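In the design runs reported in the main text, the only information available to the sequence generator was the tokenized backbone. The following block is the verbatim input for one such run; it is reproduced so that readers can re-run the procedure and compare outputs position by position.
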């Protein structure tokens, strides 16, 4: 019985000490990450629209610099 209690206590302590308690990115860094992703998506949408309207020859490549 003591070993089961010790195991439950150890597992509970492990769950409380890790997880989402400490964020990896600050709010400013997260905002920059989201803005960078939105900008890349916007460029890809522009490529798709140009392709549909036949403004640029069809290609699987993009003209944008993607890291």
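Verbatim output:
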């Amino acid at each position: 019985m003591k070993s089961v209690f010790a195991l439950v206590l150890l597992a509970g302590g492990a769950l409380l000490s890790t997880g989402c308690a400490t964020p990896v990115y600050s709010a400013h860094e997260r905002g920059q990450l989201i803005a960078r992703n939105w900008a890349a998506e916007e460029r890809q949408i522009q490529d798709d629209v140009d392709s549909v309207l036949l403004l640029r020859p069809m290609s699987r490549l993009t003209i944008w610099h993607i890291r």
